[in-house]
Amino acid sequence: MLFVGMIVAGVAVAAGLVIAAMGENMLYFYSPSQIRAGEAPSGPSIRVGGLVVEGSVRRGEGLEVSFTLTDGAETVDVRYAGILPDLFREGQGIVASGVLEAGGGRLRAEEVLAKHDENYMPPEVAEAMEMARQGGKMVPPHGARQ
Amino acid sequence: MIGELGHFALILAFVVATIQGVVPLLGAWRRIPAWTAVAVSAARAQFLLIGLSYLCLTHLFIVSDFSFTYVAQNSNTALPLFYKISAVWGAHEGSMLLWAAILAGWGFAVATFSTSLPDVFRARVLAVVALVSVGFHLFMLLTSNPFERLLPAPVQGRDLNPLLQDPGMVAHPPLLYMGYVGLVVPFSFAVAALLEGRIDLAWTRWTRPWTTVAWAFLTSGIMLGSWWAYSELGWGGWWFWDPVENASFMPWLVATALIHSLAVTEQRGAFRAWTLLLAIFGFSLSLLGTFLVRSGVLVSVHAFATDPARGVFILAFLGLVIGSALGLYAWRAARFAGGGSFEPCSRETFLLANNVLLVATSGTVLLGTLYPLLIDALGQGKISVGPPYFNAVFVPLMLPLAALLGFAPLARWKGDEWRRLLLKFRMPLAVVVLVSVGLALGTPASWAMAAGTGFALWIATGVVLGLRDRLRHRHGGGSVRRALGRGFTGMTVAHLGAAVFIAGVTWTTGAGVERDVRLAPGESATLAGYSFRFEGVSGRLGPNYRALRGTLHVSRGGEPVAVLHPEKRTYISQAQPMTEAAVHAGFTRDLYVALGDQPVQEDGAWTMRLQYKPLVRWIWLGPIMMAIGGLLAASDRRYRPSPRPARAAVPVDGAHVHG
């Protein structure tokens, strides 16, 4: 009984923690087209992916930098203050996570990811571009807070 | 020629493994000694063949034979010899060959060192190991053959991924695989025990040292991976909760539970069915990790290729191995119920709590790792579950474990009194509370840091108390070495390692400082009392890369501390830029500088990240102590073959567990 009781208690506590943590710490992915269509929320952090538009990278004061992401159909402006990853380049597929500025539809990025090798395309970005090419849009994330 | 020889040896190894997996099992079933005897010689032959195959592939790398696809894609004539040898496991096919070689190596070791095992039992163990080998050999031959020819041969190879050109990365995969694959030994012992239908004291004594050694390898492999990420990925993080890291961490958590559960099984004959289940889970998670990493469902530096055939193969193999092991367990486990009884306040209960916490943690990591894949597969959108989730779940589950770790090793088996424990620990408790409260109120340290330090101190004082008890109660005139014993010493060192690790994590996370700055030559920035003066950047030529090398003079209160040279490298064959951080390492703190980029060319200013990381070395020192403790414990005298092997069996139909 003790054996079973402890296991049940352990599983219950773990499940509770998982549910609480999942609710707060999940990041949903949106393509530039979805953001233009107003599907992305402007409160919680989200992830946005696309190709960095050629010639769009602008350096500001200190570590400020801004650039534009595209999925081939629509674009989204991104502002970031920090060091860009090694593989960040114009024309490269990247994923940025951060908060959408209210109204402007511009992303204030907290993190910019470009991964591993020069031929690599983040799968989300590849899918978003394919969708945009076909004139469709990605499925809106299930249960996303609007 | 050499390539064909390696390929041929691999095919032969597959044939031998098939024989090793089938004939001894039939022999054990039909009681034919000649058939069971096949296991040992087949295990040796298989190891020699796969070893030969591995050496052949290494030879192809050393002579840069680019007529082999795998060599052409992962090596280059300009690559230093050291990295040519490690490039063998630098990508998918070769690391599978390394995996298979290590698997055969563990089989070879069991065949050679477990001579005290009964023949039939050993035959069953070796057969189970071989059946796993068969799966991996087939996998290589069908989907991932490192000996595939590339015609016409290119003049130059594509070179090893620059991220992997680092000493930490050279040692990380072999050590990690030793641990990952080593869990096949307890798995095979468990399956063999299920086939025999019994576990006795001898079984636990055979299983324990193997499990502990595999666990020690896994610990050091994960530790090296973390150290590599810290120094090579460029940004000073030491754990990212990346799915690939989780893939190695989940089996580690279960293996940690297993070595503790085995202690109860050995000392008290209890938890037997549970121990068997953990042994199965441990290796199953290793296989699941392999599937996640190799199938390409995860995208990371480790996911070398995305070939759906590979994913399907491993998934089918995974289902077969786990399914049949769990099926056998469901059929036979009832025979292993029972064991010694124990009170709610006893060492058994505390170890049970340890197991529940570790397995629950492993489950939450598994969920966080698989959930995004599941949501994506169901077409419900793309999500990512990042470090905040894992931290929010992991820390609350680990705190009670740390609390247990302080006093549980001193609790009595079978039954103890809370009052006795409380009295015994009143001094440590007082010290811990005083220090923690003092830290929180008297210094800038936060409550979280005070608590983390308190937990580390709590474990350390428990260790000291345990040592004192042991030495005080030694029989008159007994030597210190004898009184402690390697088993106890190993446990002590490993537990102290946990305290060191907790202290390291607490202080690095809580008191570490990180600053991104933009500095022109001659400018300085200050961080945690250290002044970093940027002197500029100059060019440098490496064996297979060009580098821009920065120079920073670090000083504190006017006294020079270090000169750091962070680099930005471009590998010639791949045109891929790489950040090579400069670290001034110390026992109490690291200073870490990584170059970003040059926003505008004119003023020569660079962006860079400066970091001050207190006690960060302790994060790796702790696991090193754990691994050393594991190896010490595994070499305890009672596991060494004695002239009269202990065959005292624990009664299988013993008393049932009260609860």
State the main characteristics:
heterodimer, A: 146 residues, alpha+beta, OB fold (Dihydrolipoamide Acetyltransferase, E2P), B: alpha+beta, 20 helices, globular
CATH fold call of chain A: OB fold (Dihydrolipoamide Acetyltransferase, E2P)
Strand content of chain A: 25-35%
Overall geometry of chain B comes to: globular
CATH class of chain A: Mainly Beta
- Determine the strand fraction of chain B and express it as a percent band: 5-15%
User: Which residue ranges of chain B are poorly predicted, with pLDDT under 50 across at least 5 consecutive positions?
Assistant: 300-305, 643-659
CATH architecture of chain A: Beta Barrel
- Rg of chain B, Cα atoms, Å: 27 Å
What is the residue-mean pLDDT of chain A, rounded to a whole number? 80
Instruction: Specify the helix fraction band of chain B.
Output: 55-70%
The helicity of chain A comes to 25-40%
Total count of strands of chain B: 11
Low-confidence stretches of chain A: 140-146
User: Structural class per helix/strand content of chain A?
Assistant: alpha+beta
| Ends distance of chain B | 66 Å
Question: Please, what is the CATH homologous superfamily of chain A?
Answer: Nucleic acid-binding proteins
Q: What class do helices, strands and sheet pairing of chain B give?
A: alpha+beta
Describe this structure in words.
The complex is a heterodimer of chains A (146) and B (659). Chain A has 146 residues and is an alpha+beta fold. Chain A has a single domain (27-133), classed as OB fold (Dihydrolipoamide Acetyltransferase, E2P) (Beta Barrel). Helices cover 27% and strands 29% of the residues of chain A. Chain A contains three helices and seven strands, in the order H-E-H-E-E-E-E-E-E-H. Chain A has a five-stranded mixed β-barrel with strand order 2-4-5-7-6. In chain A, strand 3 and strand 4 (64-70) form a beta hairpin. The longest helix of chain A is centred in the first third of the chain and has 23 residues, at 2-24. Chain B has 659 residues and is of the alpha+beta class. Among the domains of chain B are: 1-165, no CATH class; 415-512, no CATH class; 513-614. Helices cover 61% and strands 11% of the residues of chain B. Chain B has 20 helices and eleven strands. In chain B, strands 3, 4, 5, 6, 7 and 8 form a six-stranded antiparallel β-sheet that branches. Chain B has a four-stranded antiparallel β-sheet with strand order 2-11-10-9. In chain B, a hairpin with a 3-residue loop joins strand 4 and strand 5. Chain B is globular, with a radius of gyration of 27 Å. Strand 1 of chain A pairs antiparallel with strand 1 (383-385) of chain B, so a sheet runs across the interface.
